[in-house]
Structure formats: C-alpha cells, structure tokens
Design brief:
Largest sheet: none
Number of helices: 3
Oligomer: single chain
Number of strands: 0
Distance between the termini: 92 Å
C-alpha cells in the first residue's frame, strides 16, 4: 500500500509541473497578445494624428497628377517628363481610378 501512495504522489507532482509549464506558456501568449494590441493601437493613433495634422507637399500632388496622366493613356517619359521611378505612379493608377469612380457616383471621371 505504501508503494501505491508514492507512485500517486510522483504522478501528481509531474502533472502539476506540466500544468505550471502550460500556465506559463498561456500567460506569455496573453502578454504577447496584449502587447501586440497595444502596439497596433499606438501605431494607428500616430497614423491618425499625422493624417489630421499633415499638410500636403507638392510631391503628393505631382504623384497624383502623374498617375492621372498614366490612367488617361499618356506614357511616362514620352508624353510627359517625370524625374522619379514610375513604380509609384503605376501603383497609384488603380487607387486613383477607384477613388474617382466613387467620387463621381459610378459614372467615371474624365
């Protein structure tokens, strides 16, 4: 009978050790998740603040105008001069097209 008690105590101890290990892993996941939410909220708050308090520079207007010209069929470096690499303008074309269509109630904006 004494042997059975020792075996059960060892099993209880090993289960409690695993439980503590799982508890620590679970606790670290909760802390990591909360930290991720806090960093996400802080980043979005900074972006929102900068959006409200930033003034446009001439570069933003130049990029939108160049994308608008590309959208209307003009070719960069042939029909109009641009100093920068054209990747940004080609990436702005679908965004600009979506924005102009939504502003003009789906009829398109020429």
């Amino acid at each position: 009978m004494l042997k059975n008690i020792k075996v059960s105590k060892i099993r209880l101890f090993s289960k409690s050790t695993n439980y503590q290990g799982n508890y620590i892993k679970g606790l670290s996941n909760i802390i990591l998740t909360k930290l991720l939410w806090i960093l996400s909220f802080a980043s979005l708050s900074i972006i929102f603040y900068q959006t409200l308090n930033k003034h446009f520079n001439h570069d933003e207007f130049e990029a939108v105008h160049s994308a608008w010209k590309i959208q209307h069929g003009e070719k960069i470096y042939i029909d109009f001069f641009q100093q920068q690499h054209p990747l940004l303008y080609y990436l702005l074309v679908p965004i600009l097209g979506t924005l102009l269509v939504s502003l003009s109630d789906g009829e398109g904006c020429d």
